[in-house]
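A.,

Following up on our hallway conversation. Structure tokens first:
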């Protein structure tokens, strides 16, 4: 899906605008995901927004799209 690929590329271009504190948190999550993948485990994430349930669904859809984009299918 070219539109999704384009959207993801635009978001990647914005990575430098993420605060250092948030980058550390996301790096920790990335390391956990990679460790689980390398161990052959199934990676299961839960996205929860207490203010707006649609955000949770959007986060899940974006994470799934990003995982496919980075070759983490399955």
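Then the amino acids I'd put at each of the 74 positions:
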């Amino acid at each position: 899906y070219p539109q999704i690929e384009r959207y993801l590329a635009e978001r990647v271009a914005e990575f430098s605008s993420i605060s250092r504190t948030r980058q550390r948190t996301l790096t920790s999550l990335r390391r956990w995901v990679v460790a689980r993948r390398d161990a052959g485990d199934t990676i299961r994430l839960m996205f929860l927004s207490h203010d707006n349930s649609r955000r949770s669904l959007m986060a899940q859809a974006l994470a799934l799209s990003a995982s496919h984009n980075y070759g983490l299918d399955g």
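The helical segments are 2-13, 20-38, 53-69. Curious whether your intuition agrees with the design.

B.
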